Amino acid sequence: MKVDDIRRSYSLKKLDFDQLDKNPIIQFEHWLQQAIAAELTDPTAMCVASVDEHGQPSQRIVLLKDVNADGFVFYTNLGSRKATELTANPKVCLHFPWHPLERQVIVYGVAERVSSVQVAKYFLSRPKESQLAAWASEQSRPISTRQALMQKFAEVKHKFAQGEVPLPSFWGGFLIRPTQIEFWQGGDNRLHDRFMYKLQQNGQWQIERLCP
């Protein structure tokens, strides 16, 4: 089958104003719980798009670790490409692709570092192997072989064999404060339902329907 022959209809649900919460965070939490209840693979997976100093965008999948009234939180190595780019240019876009539900959520916002207390609390809640992996990997940096990576992991595992694994100084988190959030529900004949929430200067959210 040719690529341009691959298509399907979207007809699971409709979306209208009367189904939307006035607060996009509450609306997102509602959809997220439905994605979890539907047992989607990695329902918290999101694409994070950032831009480097040359204007070159880059994307990667990370896992959402908190959502609250302030926004969306994820954690990473602070020396990674995404962390370096978000530090230089905090404008960011998140994308949640819930294909089986024929839904997408796109978040436009500004990234800021979360507190060291919050980072430490989350880091200590991770499985020990994940804590060790954070120490072993210089994320986004070149490495000669996988064997070299596993050797570093073994060395870190031996070093911290006793007691708790300390929080690395190079590991942290980002809060994405949203300025716009789009909710997309697939529709028949490509007539999808799209609604954009835009944050106003008074702190209220304006909702408008977009053409598909």
UniProtKB/TrEMBL annotation:
Needed cofactors: FMN
EC number, as in UniProt: 1.4.3.5
SUPFAM superfamilies in UniProt: FMN-binding split barrel
GO molecular function, one term: FMN binding
Occurrences of domain Pyridoxine 5'-phosphate oxidase dimerisation C-terminal (ranges): 171-212
Pathway linked to the protein: Cofactor metabolism; pyridoxal 5'-phosphate salvage; pyridoxal 5'-phosphate from pyridoxine 5'-phosphate: step 1/1; Cofactor metabolism; pyridoxal 5'-phosphate salvage; pyridoxal 5'-phosphate from pyridoxamine 5'-phosphate: step 1/1
Catalytic activity: pyridoxamine 5'-phosphate + O2 + H2O = pyridoxal 5'-phosphate + H2O2 + NH4(+); pyridoxine 5'-phosphate + O2 = pyridoxal 5'-phosphate + H2O2
Keywords associated with the record: Flavoprotein, FMN, Oxidoreductase, Pyridoxine biosynthesis
Sites where the protein binds substrate: R7, R8, S9, Y10, K65, Y122, R126, S130, R190, L191, H192
Cofactor binding note from Swiss-Prot or TrEMBL: Binds 1 FMN per subunit.
Pyridoxamine 5'-phosphate oxidase N-terminal domain sequence ranges: 32-158
PROSITE patterns associated with the record: PYRIDOX_OXIDASE (PS01064)
GO biological process: pyridoxine biosynthetic process
Residues at which FMN binds: 60-65, 75-76, 81-82, 104, 139-140, 184, 194
Family, similarity comment: Belongs to the pyridoxamine 5'-phosphate oxidase family.
General function of this protein: Catalyzes the oxidation of either pyridoxine 5'-phosphate (PNP) or pyridoxamine 5'-phosphate (PMP) into pyridoxal 5'-phosphate (PLP).
Subunit structure: Homodimer.
Name of the featured protein: Pyridoxine/pyridoxamine 5'-phosphate oxidase
Species in which this protein is naturally found: Rheinheimera salexigens
